[in-house]
Design a protein that fits this description.
Helices cover 29% and strands 19% of the residues. By secondary structure, it is an alpha+beta fold. InterPro entries: Catalase_sf.
Amino acid sequence: MEDLQLKLHALGKEHIEPNEDRHIEKIIQAFKHALPEYYPAGKVKRMFHPKMHGLVEARFSVATDIEQRYQHGIFLPGVEYPCWIRFSNAKKKPAPDSKKDMRGMAIKLIGVPGEKLLEQHVNNVTQDFLCVTSQTLQTRSVHDFQKSLSALMAGGFKLAWYALTHVRVVIRSMKQISACNNLLTTSFFSTTPYRFGNNETMAVKYAVIPQKNQPVTPAVKKTGNFLKEQLINDLSHTDFYFDFMIQFQEDAKTMPIEDPTVKWRSPFIKLATIKIPKQQFNSSEQQNYGESLSFTPWHCIKEHRPLGGVNRARKAVYIALSAFRHKLNIQTEQEPVTMKTFN
């Protein structure tokens, strides 16, 4: 019994729930059924974060004085990567920006060496980080998420019954969403954990925090797309900076790998700076390119392997849905090799 408890509370340790693959397959089928219904005519958008505010060019620079103990994977002193950042709303169908929601920041580094984890992308040169404006998610496990999804898709009595019998999930869902006035002054978090280096006891979560006292332009009128309009205004005037940070799992019981509803309490440590330079990004060509890109935490090298049930589900779900969406849109799914330029 003592050995079992030690195993359950080991740092960096995953614990796969029974029938997880079956629950993941149900999620995939539910989403494949829903997407054509959401977009019966025209371009099919993503199941997650369908409303894009903008795809912007950025630079990811690892600190030159990074300590030896943090030098793992992409985090080597002074290394720089060009990258794309996609800002988005999380609601399953595009909605006015004034509504409370989670917002997303998806980062795609270009030119990352090393073998990647996904078999179909093993030789690619990209590394993705996916973050949102909440530090936690609403469901504890893949099975819990599948049950909530089933109720949501069914609607009516089933959804009402689920809400009555899963009050904590509903409360957590409400706490996840919030108003947002400016994407460039907002903090983003990974919510889920990741391996850090080759030591299997080292796990981290990520945060992307805006640097203080940056000059934003006067607030725009809160139209249905004001977050995009504010982003256009701000980036037409000046550069913006974010700190890329990690926090370590320090206690396997109070900072679990498999339960993303729990907020980790360890300190954040800065490893890199993200610079979003002054730019124009709203051409139709660049918008279309942003819509065609696929983001998944599994676009990564092994030193940053995603951990936990939610990430295991993401691996299968994102691959399946991206292929499904590109097929419906008659698009070729490709990872970038270099930074694309736009007029």
